[in-house]
Amino acid sequence: MTVIDVHAHVFPRISRKEGRILAGAGEPWLRDGMMMSGEEDYRPVTPELWDAGARLEAMDRSGVDVQAVSSTPLLFGYAADAGRAADWCEMVNDRILAICAQAPDRLLPLCQVPLQDLELAATAVSKAKAAGHLGVHIGNHVGPRNLDDPEIIEFLAHCAHEDMPVLVHPWDMLASDRMRGYMLPWLVGMAAETQLGILSLMLSGSFERLPESLRLCFCHGGGALAFLLGRADNAWRNRDIVRKDSPRPPSAYTDRFHVDSAVFDSRALRLLVEVMGVERVMLGTDFPFPLGEREPGAVVRGCPELGEADRAAILGGNAARFLGLVDT
Question: Which CATH number goes with the domain that contains 226?
């Protein structure tokens, strides 16, 4: 069985000068084991984040055969001028390709795009696919625009046309003024942003307009969606304002996307599988960050309600199909 992690981040070596491409929009760069935002320390990090050799050694130790490698969300650049962001994404994508080229059978590159501009984002996807990227990594919103924004829907349709799977990651979390300390933006905000992204697609009727061929995956187990889906269905049944744009209840659309397994508790994983179906859950670890799964796949292997075939599907089989490594 091949173990595939669909949620693993990279931050390529980027200099302070290169970071200035995103003038006034975070200006991320890497300095001696520290992710930087302009002149400010953002987060200490380890070599696995930028060094392919260190990454592969860590994968060997943890029994992960393959990673889908996506940028750290700090690198998205959605607040920058679209032209600058397009140049930035091309540079980041080239660096990701260079890292993955050191072990092309084990490190699979996902590109990022200037999502603030539909035309530039679509061009970036097509160019990245031609260069060797196997999928696209996006944030769950661009400023006040959620995933149901008409231009973002058009972009997702373009990804389906290009046969490029899309990994959606929460970022730039809401209510930052109220989430002070204790890593609350990560503990509360990421789950809320993820559920917001999914429900925006469900309740807006966007899944009715998007091609069924679109392969879409939400990180962090879909946030709180599995636990609160019944609440959303109840609202759809009882309030016109909830169902006005969607002909079907939210639960009717769980077959239109995947989620990763990063829920860190076997009881939560059991519920996630019950709600989504085992074929819609894939291993995701948030490698190499401290809030990720320290023993990749441990929760999947330790969930008593899962049979061996279910474990094999979550640990690798589903991801192989999602990423286009095998025929569906």
Answer: 3.20.20.140
Question: Token digits for 167?
Answer: 């990994």
Structure tokens at 160: 């389906």
Order of all β-strands in the sheet with 135-139: 4-10, 66-71, 107-111, 135-139, 166-169, 216-218, 258-260, 281-282
Q: Any residues with CB less than 8 A from the CB of 61 and at least 6 apart, and which?
A: none
Question: What's the full length of the chain, in residues?
Answer: 328
Q: Can you tell me the distance from the alpha carbon of 11 to that of 194, in angstroms, rounded to the nearest whole number?
A: 22
Domain with 297, as residue range(s), is: 4-322
pLDDT in tens, 144-181: 999 999 999 999 999 999 999 999 999 988 888 898 88
Task: Report pTM.
Answer: 0.96
Q: In a 10 Å sphere around its CB, with 0-12 CB exposed, 13-18 middle and 19+ buried, how is residue 180 labelled?
A: exposed
Q: Is 174 exposed, middle or buried (0-12, 13-18, 19+ CB in 10 A)?
A: middle
Q: Where are the alpha helices (DSSP H) in 63-189?
A: 82-100, 118-131, 150-161, 184
Cα separation, 135 vs 162, in Å, equals 10
305 within some domain: yes
Q: What is the phi-psi region of residue 42: left when phi exceeds 0, alpha when psi lies from -120 to 50, beta otherwise? A: alpha
Q: What is the pLDDT of residues 304-324, one digit of tens each?
A: 999 999 999 999 999 999 999
Token representation of residue 30: 């890497």
- In a domain? residue 328: no
Phi/psi-derived region of residue 223, left when phi > 0, alpha when psi is between -120 and 50, beta in every other case: left
> Using the 8-state DSSP alphabet, how is residue 67 labeled?
E
Q: Is residue 327 part of a domain?
A: no
